[in-house]
């Protein structure tokens, strides 16, 4: 299979991925291991919180978004990784039973100044629940091989 290269990511809408349902059990399991705050573990404590009910950790939502992005397109991309996240915002809680979709746009694409065989593509991703409510937004660059360099790597 031919991998997507830098040239396959012009600015504009790239795609929509999902849906993926999130269960109460996975919310609690993630929280128990990585973010054991009461609003992620216990319905009673969560109801008394400002979130007014059990909700996933924002870091859990980020992990799910990453998996959806990987399955949707990154696994088929000549990706060299990311230098980080420029912006991450949580806007509404992720609830048990939510069906998530990820909308992905390319907001910028440029050739690397120091590595001309590499491009840097900046993505803006929005995660929405089944009601269309935006739960989070992320802006992050990914380093991607340019077509000629990706073809040479695939040939080896």
List keywords for this structure.
single chain; 156 residues; alpha+beta; Thiol Ester Dehydrase, Chain A; six-stranded antiparallel β-sheet; 6 strands; elongated
Describe what you observe in this structure.
- The chain has 156 residues and is α+β, with helices and mostly antiparallel strands.
- It has a single domain (6-155), classed as Thiol Ester Dehydrase, Chain A, CATH 3.10.129.10.
- Helix content is 29%, strand content 34%.
- It has helices at 24-34, 38-41, 43-48, 58-72, 147-155; strands spanning 12-21, 79-81, 87-90, 99-111, 118-128, 134-145.
- Strands 1, 2, 3, 4, 5 and 6 form a 6-stranded antiparallel β-sheet that branches.
- Strand 5 (118-128) and strand 6 form a beta hairpin.
- The protein is elongated.
Question: What's the layout of helices and strands?
Answer:
Elements: E1 12-21, H1 24-34, H2 38-41, H3 43-48, H4 58-72, E2 79-81, E3 87-90, E4 99-111, E5 118-128, E6 134-145, H5 147-155
Antiparallel strand pairs: 1-4, 2-6, 3-6, 4-5, 5-6
Question: In what range is the share of β-strand residues?
Answer: 25-35%
- What integer value in Å does the Rg equal? 18 Å
Number of DSSP strand runs = 6
Largest sheet: 6 strands, antiparallel
- Helix and strand composition category: alpha+beta
CATH class value: Alpha Beta
CATH architecture: Roll
Give me the number of helical elements. 5
Briefly, what is this?
By secondary structure, this protein is of the alpha+beta class.
């Amino acid at each position: 299979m031919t991998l997507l290269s830098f040239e396959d990511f012009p600015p504009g809408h790239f795609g929509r991925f999902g849906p993926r349902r999130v269960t109460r059990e996975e919310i609690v399991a993630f929280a128990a291991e990585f973010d054991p705050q009461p609003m992620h573990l216990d319905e009673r404590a969560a109801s008394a919180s400002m979130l007014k009910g059990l909700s996933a950790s924002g870091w859990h939502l980020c992990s799910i978004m990453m998996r959806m992005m990987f399955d949707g397109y990154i696994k088929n991309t000549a990706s060299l990784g990311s230098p980080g996240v420029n912006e991450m915002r949580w806007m509404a809680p992720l609830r048990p039973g939510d069906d998530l979709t990820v909308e992905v746009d390319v907001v910028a694409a440029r050739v690397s100044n120091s590595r001309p065989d590499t491009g840097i593509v900046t993505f803006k991703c929005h995660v929405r629940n089944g009601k269309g409510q935006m739960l989070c937004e992320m802006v992050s660059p990914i380093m991607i091989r340019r077509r000629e360099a990706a073809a040479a790597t695939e040939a080896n």
